[in-house]
Amino acid sequence: MPTLSPENSLLLAIDFQPRLMAVIEDAAAVVAHAKRLRAAASLLGVPTLFTEQYAKGLGATVEDLAPMEDAFQKMTFDACGSTGFLDRLGAGKDLVVTGCEAHICVLQTVLSLLEGGRRVFVVRDAIGSRRAESKETAIRRMERHGAEIVTAEMVVFEWLRTAEHPRFREAAALIK
Fold first, then answer.
1. Measured between alpha carbons, how far is 26 from 15 in angstroms, rounded to an integer?
2. For residues 148 and 123, what is the distance between their CA atoms, to the nearest angstrom?
3. Per-residue pLDDT of the chain (176 residues; tens, 9 = 90+)
């Protein structure tokens, strides 16, 4: 499998909402990694799509990640089951996935994307669940079905490809 490129990637941030994040194990670290990825995506021209599950009850995206654009509203756990979601992804884009909960909305969305023939990169340190065993079980299942499991740092440096990239210093500073 080839490495990621910023020209062919989309960052998908699933359900980073206050009522969910309040119960996610190590939520601050999950949000911090997602925030770094979002900043790197912005710096390198990678589009980002946020989803929100039942925003009326769970709240809008957490302030640290508040989307600049409108988040995609959904009621289905699998975002692919919501009308219009697949249209927002862009044809042929590699999907870099972050979000919560790893074993529910992230898992179901990733499995559907894989079934649809998409290349999916799940960012292990930028997904979360209430319990560690739920997250780890979801990661194993997604990997078994074809998702690449990566870290935020791996993604940023694949997007950069070289220390000669004109935005290298700025992007590398996000990781430190």
1. 16
2. 9
3. 589 999 999 999 999 999 999 999 999 999 999 999 999 999 999 999 999 999 899 999 999 998 767 899 999 999 999 999 999 998 889 999 999 999 999 999 999 999 999 999 999 999 999 999 999 999 999 999 999 999 999 999 999 999 999 999 999 999 87
Tell which residue, 88, 73, 80, 155, has the closest CA to residue 115: 80
Which residues lie across from 14 on neighbouring strands? 51, 99
Nearest to 67 by CA among 12, 140, 120, 122: 12
110-125 in b/e form (b: 16+ CB < 10 A) is bbbbbeeebbbbbbbb
